[in-house]
Design brief:
Order of helices and strands: HHHHH
Distance between the termini: 46 Å
Number of helices: 5
Strand content: under 5%
Radius of gyration: 14 Å
Largest sheet: none
Helix content: over 70%
């Protein structure tokens, strides 16, 4: 039930066609814009500073609280997210 609600909320924030594209099709600019949209929404529902860094820190901390409540291994999630980020970055030779 909670996963369905999370998916529904995600589709309300980010258009379904964007979510369903998959990370292999999206550009890093599109990924960054998606994150910017998420931070803009987060700013609208949480009393927060307008600085991107502060918003990101608060959102990530809140996500860790959620993962803990859901019994999800947050360290694995963070490692996986960082691995995705590293894999999506352009190679520097």
């Amino acid at each position: 039930m909670k996963k369905d609600l999370t998916k529904q909320l995600l589709y309300e924030i980010i258009p379904i066609e964007t979510v369903e594209k998959g990370s292999n099709i999206m550009t890093n600019e599109e990924r960054a814009e998606q994150a910017r949209m998420t931070l803009q929404y987060f700013r609208s529902i949480a009393a927060n500073d307008d600085e991107v860094e502060t918003l990101a820190i608060d959102l990530l901390a809140d996500m860790l609280h959620l993962l803990e409540q859901e019994g999800v291994d947050y360290e694995r999630v963070l490692r996986s997210a960082e691995n995705h980020w590293r894999g999506e970055r352009p190679s520097i030779l």
